[in-house]
Amino acid sequence: MPLLYFQILANGLVLGGLYACIASGFSLVWGVQNVINILHGSFIVLGAYLAYFAHLHAGIHPFLSILIAIPVFFAIGYGLQRMMINRIIAAPVLLTLTLTFGLDLMLQNGMIMAFTADFKKLVLDPPLGTIALGEVVLPVDRLAAMALALALTAMLYLILSRSRIGRAIVAVRMDREAAALMGVNVARIYAITFGLGVMMAGASGPLLAMIFPISPLGGPAYLGKAFVICVLGGLGSVPGAMIGGLVLGVVESFGALWFGPEHAVTLSFSLLILMLLFRPHGLLGRKGYE
Amino acid sequence: MAEPLLRISGLDAGYGDVQVLWGVSLEVPRAEISCLVGSNGAGKTTLMRALSGLIEARSGSIVLDGKPLAGASPEAVLGAGIAHVPEGRRLFAAMSVRDNLLMGAYLRRDGKAAIGSDLEKAFAMFPILRQRSMQDAGTLSGGEQQMCAIARGLMGRPRLLLIDELSLGLAPLVVDELCERLRALNREGLTILVVEQDVAIALELASTAFVMDTGRVTRSGASAAFADDPAIREAYLGTI
């Protein structure tokens, strides 16, 4: 019996690594500019399609599609913020939410038109096989996807904590006006932040494509997970998204074991409500970051 | 008299429908410490915000050493050489002291070595900041925060340093120390404009003083003359 628990724990951590990657960009955008980007989930799906078609038509391995996704999705995010979101950034949060919600509907329907509503599955041939750690068996593709997801998340963390631009992003988040006095061009930093957020969504798409089937309407499910993770880990911090993602992955895996996989979503949203009741700052919530 | 470093003339500015500054004119002499005094709501902070581009001038001109700055962005103003230490310090609370100082050097393109040597200078000027360099700025005492805010302003290598409310909420000993540092900076040639609610401190620190009232500069001149002026003494110093 304990062996089963180790297996479930390992599965949960693998899933959690992917969740962390999904949530970190969403959390960054929300935390820095108070924009709830409803598009985030659909950008993940778009990234998954990119990997699917690159693999189907050009034989590009999904891990390599990440390298294509990074600049492409950064540019999409940067442009979107510059051309549309910056125009209403000073308005109440409902307005940006409505804008990204509307854009999300357009993107979802655009993807249905372009790719049909059929589920697609990226199948690697030959498959990567499995790896055994003692008695715990893990598929290599999932393990590698988790490692890459954590690497992407770590990259975002390093950008934010070590680079000049990253410092400016954090400064804008803490005090927009004081940051402007330091010579920071706030509109540009917003565009870079949104670009990074969309980049994280697009780059996690290829990783998820290796594990889950791709549907043009799959975005909202990913978005829901990102929400829960932000609340679990605390808004706007990459370590928070990391912890929140891993916790959610493990909780979902054990929940599937104990209550049945059909209750995974119920469980994660119950967790959300409990967190909001008892620890609204999140597990790693930090004063001064709110 | 030498050409002033900063010349403001006929400046109007405000927030939304509310106009706060009405035709403000003043000249900040080069390489001196000047002070701006006046009661609460006189428009001192608004003038600082208009100077640094946080709010837009509606009319009038701001000229730094021949360069017009009215309507410029905060980025352009700092680039031209005016750094603004805002009221309430406005440090990045959950960022380390060192990162706060580096934010002050955000616009500089003269390389890590030059910025690093200025960081050393800042630590030499305020040794407590070196001890606290890895601590979050939000954990500093009020005096240390003001030191950090001033050092952050200096990291931009300004020609003119604006300090809004130097002494507010600080112990007298700390204020003395800050004034001493500002005098030392001034001796090296830095021009400083201090907004100060404590008129006694302001007149002692500065050589030139401006008095603001209801959005206008009502008097200006040498501080020494103000300190001896019965009307000023009665209105601001509490002694006749």
Structural commentary:
- The complex is a heterodimer of chains A (290) and B (240).
- In chain A, 73% of the residues lie in helices and 3% in strands.
- By secondary structure, chain A is an all-alpha fold.
- Chain A folds into two domains: 29-116 and 137-217, no CATH class; 219-290.
- Chain A has a two-stranded antiparallel ribbon with strand order 1-2.
- Chain A is globular and about 60 Å long.
- By secondary structure, chain B is an alpha/beta fold.
- Helix content of chain B is 38%, strand content 27%.
- Chain B contains ten helices and ten strands.
- A six-stranded mixed sheet of chain B has the order 6-7-8-3-9-10, sandwiched between helices.
- In chain B, β9 and β10 (216-222) form a beta hairpin.
- In chain B, α3 (97-104) runs parallel beside α6 (142-154).
- The mean pLDDT of chain B is 93.
- At the A-B interface, α6 and α7 of A face α2 and α3 of B.
The helix/strand series of chain A, from N terminus to C terminus, equals HHHHEEHHHHHHH
Rg of chain B (C-alpha, Å): 17 Å
Uncertain ranges of chain B:
none
Low-confidence stretches of chain A: none
Q: What is the number of independent domains of chain A?
A: 2
How confident overall, as mean pLDDT of chain B? 93
Q: What percentage of residues of chain A falls in helices of 4 or more residues?
A: over 70%
Distance between the termini of chain B: 33 Å
Question: Residue share in helices of chain B?
Answer: 25-40%
Shape of chain B: globular
Question: Summed up, what is this model?
Answer:
The complex is a heterodimer of chains A (290) and B (240). Chain A is mostly helical.
